[in-house]
Amino acid sequence: MSNSLAQLFAKCKSENRAALIGYLPAGFPTQRSAKKIVKAMIAGGVDAIEIGYPYSDPVMDGPVIQAASEQALSNGAGAAEVFELLASSVQLGAPSLVMSYWSPIEKYGIEKFAKAMNDAGGSGVITPDLTIEESAAWKSVCANNKLDRVYVVAPSSSDSRLPLVTEQCSGFIYAASLMGVTGTRDSVSGNASGLVARIRKNSALPVAVGLGVSTKEQAREVAAYADGVIVGSAFIKIIQKHGAGRKGLKKVKELARELSEGVRNVK
User: Fold this and answer.
1) Set 47, 61, 148, 227: catalytic member
2) Active-site annotation holds for 106
3) Residue 121 lies in a domain
4) Structural domain harbouring 199
């Protein structure tokens, strides 16, 4: 498996903090701008980058990410843009993953996809809608390409189901802090801490919480019990409001800095 995620979480643990993971769809609002946004995130203190593979039926994403994906798709964003942005992010020194629904991976070819991930320096792939029962071939190609496999665990996961999923994960486990779709919320759902506690009973892997964090205070709240904090919609909203010019990039960097402060000194 890839060492970079393990190294990142170990480093953050030694610094008594959580890792800050920033999400952005490839090609949003344009591919050129996406590279600048990722650079601003990292400059502001984001530790790792999660690149979204734009998909036409993003059933687990909220309206903010759906709109961003639609815009990326309208610009022609696809696999080439995903791997290009991934390589760009890796070159900036941040461990980088791709989050993709299973259909685009399957359509691209799972072996070809895993090899392209490896060639670009990717650390792993988050597959929110791939069931463990259908993941045997994926497990094999990821192992061959030194990629971590990250699955999403929700509060609805039963006590019998949860260990079956967590044992298939590597790198970290993605805990969905809210039932249903992703997106910023005024407050992070209280069921997140309970879900993380349940996961820890079944796995020693780091646990990262996504789906809701948008402020420094929320980041601090989640970082107190999770190993990683994932932020996506909040960054996208900035670009939707201010554009990807100098003002928007400055605000992305400022939010990254605030969130980075929030995940520190909380352990």
Assistant:
1) 61
2) no
3) yes
4) 3-262
Please indicate, yes or no, if residue 267 is contained in any of the structural domains. no
pLDDT value at 179 more than 50: no
Confirm whether 35 is domain-assigned: yes
Entry pTM = 0.94
Query: What's the domain count of the chain?
Result: 1
Q: What pLDDT score was predicted for residue 62?
A: 79
pLDDT of res. 138? 98
- Flag whether 28 is in a domain: yes
Q: What is the CATH number of the domain that holds 167?
A: 3.20.20.70
Which member of 50, 81, 148, 227 is catalytic? 50
Active site residue 61: yes
- CB 3 within 8 Å of CB 247: no
